[in-house]
Amino acid sequence: MDGILLPTVYLTAGLCLCAGLHHAMVATQRPVDHTNFWFALLSFGVTAYLLARGVTYQVQTPQQLVEWRRIEAAIACVGFFAVLPWFVASYTRVGHRWFLLAMTLWMVWIGLGANLLLPYGVSFVELPSLRWVELPWGEQALDVRVHGRGGWHNAGWIGILLILAYAIYACVHQYRRGARRRATLLALGLGYLICLLLFNQVVNRGWVNFIQTGEFGLVGLIAIMSYALAREVRETDARARVLLDGVPCIVSVKDRQGRYLFVNRSHEQRYGLTGIRTR
Predict the structure, then answer these.
(1) What pLDDT score does 24 carry?
(2) How much is the pLDDT for 16?
(3) Which of 90, 110, 173, 272 is the most buried (most CB within 10 A)?
(4) Are 66 and 127 contacting, i.e. CB atoms less than 8 angstroms apart?
(5) Quick one: which H or E segment has residue 261?
C-alpha cells in the first residue's frame, strides 16, 4: 500500500504513544490525582488501535480482514471506550461509580465476549470480500467499512452513545460549576470525536466514498486533552513555586529515590541548590 495514509496512521500512533508515556510519568509523580493515569491508559489504547488499523489496511485475504477487524473492535471497546468514562469522571469530578462500572463491564463484554465468540466478530455478519476505496488524492485504500450490522454491533454502539452522553453531561455540569476552561477543552475534544464518529456512519452507509475517520477522532481527543492536562500541570507547578518561594521556611520535595523534585528560595539560599524546579 503506497501513499500517505499508512504513514499517517503510524505517525499518529507514535504521537499517542509519546503522550501516554508522558502522562504515565506525570501520574507516578502525582499519585493522589488519577486523571493523568486514566488519560495515559486512553493514549495507550488509541496507540494500539492505530497500530492494528495500520495492519488491517495491509491484509491480503478476507479471513485476515475479519481477524484484524476483530482485534480492532476489542481494542476500541476495552482500550478506549471502557476507560473513557473513568477519565471523564476523574477530570470533571462527575459520575456515579455504579454507572462507570456498568459501562466498563458492558464494553468489555462486547469487546472480549461477543466479539470473540461470534464467527466474524461484531464488525461483520458474513465473510466480507476485499474491496478498495479510491481517495480524493488518488490513493487506494482497503475498504474496512461495516456494511452489515448485527445485533451485537448495535449493542456496542448503544454503549458508546451512553458513554458519550454521560461525557457531555459531565462536561456541562463542570462548566456550570465554574471550571469553564477545563470544560471547554473537554467539549472541544469530545465534539471533534463525535463529529468524526458521525462521519463514520455516513461512510458506512455509502453516502460518501471515503475511508473511516473514527481513529482520527480518537487522536484529536488525545491531542486536545494532552494539551489541557499538560497546561494544568505547568500552571499548578508555577503557583506552587510562587507560594512556597514566599515563605521563610525551608521547603524541599524529594521522590522515593531521594532525588530533589523541588526546593524553594529559602532552601536555595541556605544550601546553595539551584536550578531545581517542580516537575
Answers:
(1) 95
(2) 97
(3) 110
(4) yes
(5) strand 260-263
Phi, psi values for residue 262, rounded to 5°: -160, 140
pLDDT in tens, 77-95: 999 999 999 999 999 999 8
**Cell of residue 201, nine digits:** 456512519
Q: Which cell numbers in the block locate residue 50?
A: 492505530
Q: 19-25 — which CB contacts under 8 Å span 24+ positions?
A: 19/43, 19/222, 19/223, 19/226, 20/44, 20/47, 22/226, 22/230, 23/226, 23/229
CB-based contact 130:61 (threshold 8 Å): yes
Q: Helices 214-245 and 35-56 sit at what angle, rounded to 10 degrees?
A: 150
Find where cell 532525588 sits. 259
Residues 6+ apart with CB under 8 A from 48: 75, 79
3-state SS class at 253 = strand
Closest CA to 262 of 250, 275, 274, 252: 252
Beta pairing partners, 142: 132
Q: Would you place residue 279 in the very low, low, confident or very high pLDDT band (cuts 50, 70, 90)?
A: very low
If phi > 0 it is left, if psi is from -120 to 50 it is alpha, else beta; for residue 254 that is beta
Q: Are strands 132-134 and 140-142 parallel, antiparallel or unpaired?
A: antiparallel
| Cell numbers that stand for 107 in this block | 464494553
**Tens of pLDDT along 44-78?**
999 999 999 999 999 999 999 999 999 999 999 99
pTM for the structure as a whole: 0.86
